[in-house]
Amino acid sequence: MKEFVFNPEQIGNVEDPSAIVLKKAKRSDIKIVKRFIDARYKDNIKIIYRVEEDSKDDSESLALPFKGKTFIKDRPVIVGFGPAGMYAGLVLASYGLDPVIIEKGRKVEDRTIDVATYKKDATLDPSSNIQFGEGGAGTFSDGKLYTGVSSGLKAYIGEKMVKYGASEEILYDSHPHVGTDKLVSVVRGIREEIISLGGEVHFEEEFIGFEQDREGRVCAVNTDKATYNTRNVILAVGNSSRKVFRSLKDVLGLTSKPFSVGVRIEHLREDIDKSMYGFDTALYKNICAANYKLAVDTNTGLKLYTFCMCPGGEVVPSASVKDTIVTNGMSYSRRDGDNSNAALLIPYDPSRYSDDPLYGMEYQDDLERKAFEVTGRSGLAPCVTYGELCKNTRNASSVKPTYLPGTASCNMLEIFTGEQVDTLVDGIRLMGRKIRGFDSESAVLTAPETRSSSPVRIPRDKETYESIFVKGIYPSGEGAGYAGGIMSSAIDGIKCANRVAQSMLN
Ligand SMILES: Cc1cc2nc3c(=O)[nH]c(=O)nc-3n(C[C@H](O)[C@H](O)[C@H](O)COP(=O)(O)OP(=O)(O)OC[C@H]3O[C@@H](n4cnc5c(N)ncnc54)[C@H](O)[C@@H]3O)c2cc1C
Q: With 0-12 CB in 10 A as exposed, 13-18 as middle and 19+ as buried, what is 365?
């Protein structure tokens, strides 16, 4: 492994940075395995590339072999076509097991229109929005792929994304991200590959429940349109599928799980860039807007941390229930928008307040409804500047909130508790010690961020990944409580698919 170090002037605006690296290495039989920015010293920012000898033993060897067609009696069913369901579908289709995929939302092409309509005039389609529809919650996102989960499957997942339109840089960047503009074609490409291998994807069809045989094993799946006989079901419905959580609460023995709530904070991208790197990244086409990750212990005793940072991104309307407001963040592949945003989250443990496994989910719903009421049921998101939050007085801001269809000024105490608001006030102040200007009075806070992770867990066996209550049901991905983010959900989907394949092919 060798490292090549560049300064921003050397690599920031060249046409093909990887060609410059190979030239410096004076070899063509090597590949870039890592790229990262060393920003410890603002007067000496370094862009570092690690290279190693190109090996043929790469991710393709992880791709599962296509086993050839055999007659499949009860085809496996996958519920949900987010990252977990998509990659589970790819793997089962690669095994020749012809999965049937049920997705309540619309195809990504149609969904894009529904999301645009919601941004334009606050008309929400509860089945097709930023949470629901082909590609799942990750489709209109920043497409960050970094995760704390370590798995050899990451390369397989990344390679597929590159095949269908993501930049090759995601395979070696230390903070890979795809961007909304490219995710749409990635999602379409994966769907087409599944279908070409014999799988089926049924859009605008909603999973209602399942049937069990005398031994208690799943034997059929019911949707609002059909019944599918099956003995294996991967349940990958994501963290917003409240109807499913309510209906399966008892039969699958759901438990509550801690999660977090808070707001999205926005600053000018240029200000964050300058604080982190000492320059505006707009000067260099090959240097991405600066990224941060912060966590502080506040004077209320509660933690405040940043999550899902979207450099050069936008805050997006992410509700899936009518008469509610939910925020989240996205960015395009170039991450060159005017603002940089991140979720600012406070941990919340529902088991402290109730034994009801769905208490946390109802709490999320309650915050989202309050937010809708606070702005006069207009569909605008509640918003304050940090200056206003601290002093309760209005102040003008140089940061224009990016949330569409728009924001309206509000009193955050009408949504959050005093303790939560105090946590934001003190936490942002402390974060200002780590990133200059983070606690600027102009920083804009838009609320509420409630869907950062699932409020429930669907218990499953550690080895077989099957529900401990119903054989043949494989709870998977973020909604089931086994993943947090695109990459880890995709990994979990593949693991479930491998277990289904083992049980069907043995
Ligand atoms: C705006 C936004 C930005 C994000 N940015 C990032 C990011 O940059 N990086 C990152 O790692 N994570 C990000 N996330 C989180 C990430 O998207 C999720 O962790 C991931 O999508 C979870 O994958 P999943 O397959 O488990 O569930 P989901 O992606 O939620 O997919 C579940 C699917 O199931 C379908 N479904 C639900 N109920 C039913 C039913 N009854 N019948 C049929 N289908 C059903 C839904 O329509 C949905 O398509 C973001 C999320 C949002 C909302």
A: middle
Judgement on whether residues 414 and 348 belong to the same structural domain of the protein: yes
The pick from 100, 142, 177 for probing ligand 1's pocket by mutation, whose C-beta has the most ligand atoms within 8 angstroms, reads 142
Provide the 3-class DSSP secondary structure of residue 197.
coil
pLDDT per 10-residue tile (average), the chain, 506 residues: 92 92 85 91 92 60 54 89 98 95 97 97 97 96 91 95 96 94 96 97 98 98 98 98 98 98 98 96 94 98 98 98 98 96 98 98 98 97 96 82 97 97 98 97 97 97 97 98 97 96 89
Q: Which of 206, 232, 245, 237 shows the shortest CA–CA distance to 77?
A: 232
User: Best of 478, 487, 488, 492 to mutate for ligand 1, by most ligand atoms within 8 A of CB?
Assistant: 478
Of 449, 474, 496, the residue that ends a domain is 449
Question: Whole-prediction pTM value?
Answer: 0.94
Which among 430, 424, 463 has a CA at the least distance from the CA of 444?
Answer: 424
Asked whether residue 158 falls in the same domain as residue 220, the answer is: yes
